[in-house]
Amino acid sequence: MRWASGLVVAFLAAGFSSAWAQEAASPPAASAPAGAQPEDPMALQLLDFFSQFCFQKFPDDAALAAEVEAQGAVAMTADEAKERLHGDPGRGWTINHDGGQFVLILESPPYHACAVRAYSDKPLVSKRDMPQMKALAAQDKHLLSKPLLLPNRLEGGVSIMVAYEVTNEDGSVISPKEAYMVVIDSYIAPADPKRKVETRFVRQLTTQ
Length: 208
Hints:
- This protein is an alpha+beta fold.
- It has one domain (39-206).
- It is 25% helix and 34% strand.
- It has helices at residues 6-13, 16-19, 41-54, 61-70, 78-84, 129-138; strands at residues 74-75, 90-97, 100-107, 111-120, 142-144, 148-154, 157-168, 177-187, 197-206.
- Strands 1, 2, 3, 4, 5, 6, 7, 8 and 9 form a nine-stranded antiparallel beta sheet that branches.
């Protein structure tokens, strides 16, 4: 497997890095300029779930669990959650919404994290992602660091992660440490034909 696969090159060329480097301080207006490419509804729903669960409820685990279950989510079995968390402690749910299936993962400390993810035939990213995350951080008078792009090898494919550290307005470290991450896993030759591209948004608090 060559690292610079065609899908990864196309993914970066499509504007992922530039979209996440926007300096807008708040989400853009809902109406798009004439002739603009419409946003993927599933990508926008993924962002909405990330805001709703991982910002409005997390890190209150009990409130998050109550909210996701009130929306009809199905709890994962212990084995299913363990597989998603690679053996780390936590819980998980699946949410069927508007023709797509989303997964919510809640990881327990020391890496306390909330993540939403979904499979599609392309990365579920939009131009609203970065402005929205900056706006969410700003609610606590926090800023995001410059993006760190981390390509990685993945069994059966490739993975790209964009990570941001959350800081105080003066750039100093907050406690507990906090980071936002967007991870795109592209499965080049998946055993499951439906397992093409997985997009996940993560908010992580490190208590160590």
